[in-house]
Amino acid sequence: MNSSSSTEVPAATASHRAALEAAIAAMPSVDDDSWEVPAPTLKAAGMQDDVATARTAVLQFAMWAREAITRLPHAPPTAFEATDFNDYYKIVMSRVQFVYAQAQAGTPADQAPSMPLCSFQTQLRRRPVFRKAGEESCSCVFDVTGSYTPRGSIKQVGSFESSSAALRQALTAVGARTFTAETLRGLLRDRAPKAAGIEDSLTPTNDAWIAALDGRALFTLLPEGADFSNGDDVEVKIIVDGGVATFLANGPWFRVTFCETPLLQCMSQFFTDSVCSVGDDDGAAWCREAMCNFATTAHHVKAATPEGAFSLFSGRRAPHPPFHLLQHMYLKEVLGGMATSSLFAGRVLGKADMPQPLIGTLAHEGPMGFMCLHPELDERLPLSSLLWHLLFWGMTANHTVLPDGHGSATFKAMLTDLGLVEQVAMARQDSGKLARFAAIFSTTRKMASEIENFGDVEEALGLGYIAFGAGGFFGEKRRAFTEFSLAAKITKATSIAPDGEVRVGFAAKLGDCSENATGSWAEYNADSALPAKFIVSPEADRMGMWRRMLAYGAKGDAWFDAQTAGESPKPLVKKAEAMALAAALRKLATSPAMAGDAYSAMTGRISALAETVEGAAEALE
After folding, report:
1. Where are the beta strands (DSSP E) in 140-203?
2. pLDDT by residue (tens digit) across 319-328?
3. Bridge partners (DSSP) listed for residue 4
4. Distance between CA atoms of 142 and 534, rounded to whole angstroms?
5. Which phi and psi angles does 490 have, rounded to 5°?
6. Would you give the distance in Å from CA 466 to the centre of its chain?
7. What is the pTM of this model?
8. For residue range 28-57, what is the model confidence (pLDDT) as tens digits?
9. Which parts of 375-527 are beta strand (E)?
10. Distance from C-alpha of 362 to C-alpha of 595, rounded to nearest angstrom
């Protein structure tokens, strides 16, 4: 039987650095029989048949770390900033959202918009398992007592009731972090070479955008029971949804976007601190495992993949800030560098004369936000997702797609119907099956960003993927036990319609199918259990949204399956739908927010995309 007990969850303290220092001191210094690389670490790094190389990697890292820890910059939590634990794509997308909001409101480029308001929602997908007094246990610090039962004989440790005070204290500290113009400008400057085109394109927005953020706090944590004011403030509240503590963040889109990943990092650190405080393995033991994981995976990735193919997508769920910084130092000093998404590493190490090459493009919040804001485009197909991508292309000159929000095959079908496939520069796989995604985007450069272990890297390389992004894979995810899994998505947005009416919209993410052998939503029963990753606002019709999303995905998968069978399926997009999409693009391009010579290149690109869509529309029914 499972048993329940409470636990004190420590707040974020400087003990993280002490644990890291202790772990480094205990790392091996000679290649003898007194130590070994754990079997789960070897397996995840793909080195179970090359133990000698794995040991060499661990020893090399350990010897370097003993000296490097003396140079590791101190980054006390009291000095954290609002951009910390955000990813580079956030400062890209926030500027796109800033101009979009101005365009929708008809305001000039120097005015900060308050609408639309977007709401992010966290999701707890999996809880961490660990050993306490020799027994397998599960941390339930976000679960209301009695709402969750671990499997088998695993014991339940902690509850939301026992941890809520410490959790609110941690969230209050996160919300108090502020934006600074100096840091924002430094982060824009330290972009990777691959991001130069994005920064050049967005330059006209920078001054007004930075002025709208400078000096503002990240968010205000509302008192228990209080509701959002739906004004200019960014606010966070905790609700209980399905017995689980869930964070909701609400505010102007270009500002509230910066709440998503710090909330996830706070949850990650809270989970990890709770496990280390009551489990058999303390913080130093966590660091030792993380360093072994990192050394083996980093060295194997560098040896097995082309130079520059990998990016470190880390920061949003980094549970140990000092270790996170140490990873970046090692990659730069020993392994020749690796582009990173981490604005925390970019700020702290950049100010210590160790600038980091920052990289990133877009995320699911773009298509999900537009699903809330442009329902008029989505009656049959999720064309609002395409509107987001085309706006992003036009504003940034970066033609990456993240197509799985409503099913990658559906997105590919829409691109095909509208004559846009050849304009895609990179298709990013983030769910479903690597092989099916590679087949859907067979002629397009591809990136794999759902890397759990080195086997995924090997499979992707064999399928022709040329780029990779990974985070927890590089050390922060424990290998011997089930690790936690978290997410946060936009699920609701409030806007002002042209007639002045307040409009509320909802969104969800489908992702690509991994629930059956074929990876096709066309073969999935709508009455089957909902995928664990499906997330929707508690205010929305959950089952209605699920059936709608599944219908979107099934249409595209049926289209692709027919193509694979040698058939010639009809276009999915109708002429009227294509023309409506083009009209939405032109409306944005002709707004006062993008008037003037500084925006001419941007509006020219958006208008050219609209023209392509209009031309393709002539061949549609």
Report:
1. 155-157
2. 999 999 999 9
3. 156
4. 19
5. -70, 125
6. 20
7. 0.95
8. 999 999 999 999 999 999 999 999 999 999
9. 400-401, 426-429, 446-448, 467-470, 485-496, 502-506
10. 24
